[in-house]
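Lab notebook: predicted structure, single chain.

Context: the supervisor wants predicted structures on file for every construct in the current expression panel, including those that have not yet been purified. This is the next one on the list. No modifications to the sequence; it matches the entry in the shared construct table.
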Amino acid sequence: MNAELYRRAVSVFEEICQLPRSEHATALDKACAGDAELRAQVESLLEADHAVSTGDFLRGRALEDIAAMSKQPKVQVQVPGPNTVLAGFRLGARIGAGGMGAVFEAEDLKLQRRVAVKVMPLPSTMPASRLTGAISPWSSSKGSRSGSCSRLSGV
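Prediction complete. Output recorded below exactly as produced.
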């Protein structure tokens, strides 16, 4: 759709949406004067406006998708344990966990310092070659953040 067609469609939509729904077809015939592309655009805008004003947009595909997702079997995830080495970090005790992963006390084997590593769990069906995630080390010295961030890839 070009800019001019869009401008016209919005203009016609703004006029017609003020009318009772029963008058839309007649007003569309008059305003679009046989321009099928313009009419299709205005009808699309009117349908979307109606769906939003009646709340129908909440009863459509989104709810169907949520229902389908809830019926899918739960995926088991694998989270590494203590003493696992990931990208140069030896994991220690798990110090926290939540919906986005688990945080481990760890040792940066290259820099020989204590850090915290967040591990994002992935489905057990995913090949190890595709394992990626973010590591955000926190220095144990002075309790301050090191400011560095590196990426795990191909672990």
